[in-house]
């Protein structure tokens, strides 16, 4: 059993609790135990805090990192936004002495010191990694194959970009999450401009909603083109943007898409036999029924 | 399709005057940007790959190439007062494609930091700060969600600062250390009364 401190973030536990429940239950079956990271806060939002003052962003993220350092466990998380804050600040503080000293100066006031003893992982990369879990193990855990469904993947931005500060290689045309979708028995479909942003990041969703959902709308057009039954992602913030964004698109632009949006862990949960109730799929703004009818 | 309010006028005004006045240039601005962003805007040869990769460019007058040029020329006021500065979704497509290995996204973030120092910042950013100061979360829990969590067999409050509110003090200490909460309150009050 591989053990990780499970960093929740905000949107997963407070808007889509099914993602949280699914992550814990599904990974337990795959040999990954997610432990409570008590007292963690917002990562903090890289768009909002990074824009105001990067130094505050470093210090706030470092506090979350240190809670896991005290547990002596690596962090696993399920949100790309959190990944940017927690992963990137961890790497930056490990490698920039000046930044580290600045942050430790602040954290002295709450008796904490950044030492850089842990690593940060996205749960999706742990599931893909054959040393931790791997595709075969995912395939073996499936009891309700998602056969006959066409599922498109949204990678989101902050998991793999900027590539220089990550370890995923080229970000132009990745295919590894599609492989993970195929492992569930579904047919992964690709679509035009797959790596386009969901539109929510950088504080744009709050600053100019019409601008943000216009980007989402472009993705929806491309997804309709390939007749996807559902969209999957690995970031609850992207999920929020696609899911509630479709309602906002309907209000502002008068277009109704009705495309179910599910976190990869929710899909994995369905494939491992969890019921829609156990995943709180009723909290999704866009009904998942058309997709569920195809698999259940 | 509805477009963002005010953009056509803003764009017209910008295009009307493209002269460069020497006294508007601040070489220090370029250096400060390079220090905060840890990237090298002066290497830019204005190829435009960044703007071509940008999801915000087709739907607004936001041009990332223009901002990098402004960073290089030291056009401080023009950069920081431009409302387009806040339309970057930080998707990092420009950063991954830049043939000169510049990180234009980080140039934008550095500019936003400098703008925020002058209190030029949209209120939604500050409201996130206020929410985090009170609860530790930018998107806090609510009753519908508590009920849903219970049904899933989860604790109604997640094991974060919601379940362990004693940890909020540490967050408040960090934000107070930078005086951010006080500034956020002041600016939000000024703008919204």
Structural class of chain B: mainly alpha
Low-pLDDT parts of chain B are: none
Task: Please state the CA-atom Rg of chain B, rounded to the nearest Å.
Answer: 20 Å
- Label the CATH architecture of the largest domain in chain B: Orthogonal Bundle
Question: Would you tell me the overall average pLDDT of chain A?
Answer: 96
Radius of gyration of chain A: 19 Å
Tally of separate domains of chain A:
2
**Share of β-strand residues of chain B:** under 5%
End-to-end separation of chain B: 32 Å
The secondary structure category of chain A is: alpha/beta
Total count of strands of chain A: 8
Question: What is the CATH level 1 assignment of the largest domain in chain A?
Answer: Alpha Beta
Explain what you see.
The complex is a heterodimer of chains A (296) and B (193). With 296 residues, chain A is of the alpha/beta class. Chain A is built from 14 helices and eight strands. Chain A has two domains: 2-123, Glutathione S-transferase Yfyf (Class Pi), Chain A, domain 2 (Up-down Bundle); 143-295, Rossmann fold (3-Layer(aba) Sandwich). The radius of gyration of chain A is 19 Å and the shape is globular. The two termini of chain A are 31 Å apart. The mean pLDDT of chain A is 96. Chain B folds into two domains: 21-117, Fumarate Reductase Iron-sulfur Protein, Chain B, domain 2; 123-192, no CATH class. The two termini of chain B are 32 Å apart. The chains are: A alpha/beta (296), B mainly alpha (193). The interface between A and B is large, with 70 and 70 residues.
At a glance:
Chain A is α/β, with parallel strands linked by helices. Chain A has helices at residues 11-14, 17-29, 46-52, 54-71, 80-95, 97-107, 123-128, 135-141, 176-182, 204-207, 209-225, 236-253, 264-271, 289-295; strands at residues 2-7, 32-36, 75-77, 120-122, 150-154, 187-189, 230-233, 261-263.
